[in-house]
Amino acid sequence: MSNVLEHYHFLHEIPELGFEEFKTSAYIAEQLERAGLKVTRGINKTTGIVAEIDSGVPGPVLALRADMDALGHIIDGQPCARHTCGHDGHSSVVLTAAQEMLKEGTVKKGRLKLLFQPAEELGAGALSMIEGGALDDVEMILGFHLRPLEECQVGQAVPAVIYSACSTLEATIKGVPAHAARPHLGVNALDAAVQAVQAVNTIHLAPGLTWSVKATRFLCDAGVTNSVPDEARVVWDLRSQENAPMEVLKAKVTQAILNSVAAVGATADVVVLKEMPAAEIHDEATDIIRAAISEVLGESGLTQAKTTPGSEDFFYYPVKCPQVKAGFWGLGTNLVPGLHHPDMHFDINSLEIGVNIFKACVRRVLG
Questions:
Q1: In what order do the strands lie in the sheet with 325-335?
Q2: Distance between CA atoms of 48 and 39, rounded to whole angstroms?
Q3: pLDDT digits (tens, 9 = 90+) for 12-49
Q4: CB 20 within 8 A of CB 366
Q5: Secondary-structure breakdown of the chain: helix, strand, coil percentages, each rounded to the nearest 5
């Protein structure tokens, strides 16, 4: 019997935020070492792990990537970490596949690298792995993600999930404090922030492009109710199906914020909190995944490629390392009510399908 559910249940109970996956990475590394894989811990002085199966025979270098971090939530007023994006499932699948492939002698030529990456949700984990040299010798990298029920059901898999670019911008808006009885002596940062939100809402890109921008956080409190607040912070979430329009959108949003707050006498400092590039997927990698899905699930289990407004820091790998061919697929798990929902859950028995699809991919490249 596969160990995937054993790994999943353990990892699910120890959710940890990005770059804090200490228990998670320790468990994964110990399991890999116990199976006999060569393991390097602490990639780029983080919780990142690289494990390797070397056939000893010349051939390509293929990498499988899994993310490890959980999401931060505020539930019943209490901050907590919770696995609501399925990264515990991702790690369990790649860990189990690695154990089984070493035991079965799947890698007959070249080398297989297993990347267990921290901090995907922060948009910083893939960059950290790249900086740590994890992709220096890799020719192809494959990743995957559990899919929501409306996209893909158990018994199905998506050969290519085409993610969007995203950027998170924060504006710190400065006004001038004053007594609420004498507002003419101050500059109300709350008013300026409202102006900024409305100004950003008037932005337009070309109608043929797929994009969105919306305010997602608004913080302003003078500490009392009879004072004009002198500071407000607003966060915007930006999305674009392509990378080039994202640069245009960021510039338009920044200018709209600066101009609108200046109109009421305030100033703003706009910074990018995090960003992830749009998908860059290679046909060769997708063809391998498509064939593997058909082998495991039959033609009826193979869906069309799907586009999503979600984002993935996985795509820093092909963007920053253009010599690496990237493929990214989706596993049907009957996931509801949705990714990042505090009560997200899915059919965990579907993880076994993920193990088998990854093994079929590796056989096609290194078998």
A1: 38-43, 48-54, 111-117, 61-67, 140-148, 325-335, 157-158
A2: 11
A3: 999 999 999 999 999 999 999 999 999 999 999 999 99
A4: no
A5: 35, 30, 35
